[in-house]
Amino acid sequence: MKIVRWTVCLALSAAACALTSGTAAAETIKVGVIATFSGPNAIWGKQFREAIDVYVAQHGSEVAGHKVEFIYKDVGGPNADASKAAAQELLIRDGVKYLAGFDFTPNAVAVAPLIKQAKVPAVIFNAGTSSINKQSEYFIRTSFTLWQVSAPAGEWAAKNGAKKVVTAVTDYNPGVDAEAAFSSTFQKNGGEIVEKIRMPLNTTDFSPFMQRIKNSGADAVFAFLPAGPATFAFTKAYNENGLRAAGINFYGTGETDETTIDALGDQAIGLVTAYHYSGAHDSPLNKSFVAKLKELHPSSRANLASVGAYDGVELIYRMIKAAGGDGPKAVEAAKGMEWESPRGPIKIDPVSRHVVQNVYIRRVERGSDGYLINKEFATIPNVADLGYSQ
To answer: Does residue 129 contact residue 352 with C-beta atoms inside 8 Å?
Structure first.
């Protein structure tokens, strides 16, 4: 085992030397994308890859004379060991100069020691736990954190009629972050948290939890669950167990995700969420992004994963333009970068290396084309990662 570890260290050290030496000549710069492309959570990899397709179709595959090549690695879901192994292969065998992707928090955290040693920037397209960026100075995030979207949700709910709330979150780091963020701002603004429910990561049977919420005396529930089957099942259970009929309002974050919203049907109409992106965001840039996605992948809908990947590639292109394959120089260049995104104006905070962005209060409505949409009706501008200093 010691021999294997020493071999990996030597290889990564060699990679670091190669990456930091730099050359004036243009070269192919490889970007390794670590994500879930198979299994029940394969929607993440699908959305990442399709958004990358859109970006490359709009901006080309060359930056400052460098050809950019994307290499995709499937880790099959939340799997720290698989993520670490994929990163080692990409860094040592493929010689990537940037890593990207990371749908789940454990998968991002697992590569922190490797990117530190190899001095390779890793751009997070989704994983939303605030503490990730503290694990390595080479992490940069273009997605969001649960603190960033849940704290504004708590403040908005308290100022718009909610008095007593039950929080119901999936019991893992992002869920704990969402619970803490919503609770802190809701209570600061005069609200009361009557119960905190944490639900198993793999459950899709929410009836027992719905009964607890119904019996709690709360006038609203704040929920966080990872996008996919769980969010669909929870939102469905909210209606089928009579919470809406009992006057218990629903507040959430990504529970009305564009990839599952139509399956929910009319029962989703009226649900309120706080989030950093809606596929229905009304801007020329977003309309162009959505149109190109539909052209390249007709059955797809833009969601949080799409915009996280799209802006992640924008950041990588900007870093390549500024620093080529020099990792430390690229990270320094990224700090403070700002541009207009399909989601609105964004900036990379120079301290947390996390995206500063608008958070939108959204309500599910039926759009003019007949599809359900998350209609933005209020904006909290320029929100940073409020959990970074926690």
So the answer is: no
Which CATH number applies to 2-144+283-353: 3.40.50.2300, 1.10.3660.10, 3.30.230.10, 3.40.50.720? 3.40.50.2300
Please determine whether the domains at 2-144+283-353 and 147-275+359-383 fall in the same fold group of CATH. Answer: yes
Question: Taking the model in full, what pTM does it have?
Answer: 0.90
CA dihedral 347, 351, 352, 354 (to 10 degrees): 10
**100 pairs with which residues across the strands?**
33, 123
Which pLDDT score, from 0 to 100, does residue 25 have?
Answer: 52
Domain residue spans of the chain? 2-144+283-353, 147-275+359-383
Residue the block writes with tokens 């649960």: 146
What three-state secondary structure class fits 46? helix
Beta strands in 88-202 (DSSP E): 98-101, 122-124, 139-141, 164-170, 192-199
In the three-class reduction of DSSP (H, G, I as helix; E, B as strand; rest coil), residue 10 is classed as: helix
Please name the residue that has the structure tokens 């990839």.
Answer: 259
The amino acid occupying position 363 is R
Residue 20 pLDDT? 46
Encode pLDDT of 272-293 as tens digits.
999 999 999 999 999 999 999 9
Alpha carbon distance 389, 352 (integer Å) = 9
**Region at 325 (left for phi over 0; alpha for psi -120 to 50; beta for the rest):** alpha
For residues 148 and 355, what is the distance between their CA atoms, to the nearest angstrom? Answer: 10
Measured CA to CA, the distance from residue 168 to residue 218 in angstroms comes to: 12
The stretch 3-25 carries a mean pLDDT of 44
Distance CA 176, CA 169 (A): 7
pLDDT of the residue at 99 = 98
At 1 the pLDDT is 37
Structure tokens at 280: 């229905």
Beta bridge pairs of residue 378: 361
Looking at residue 279, its amino acid is G
Fold of 147-275+359-383: Rossmann fold (3.40.50)
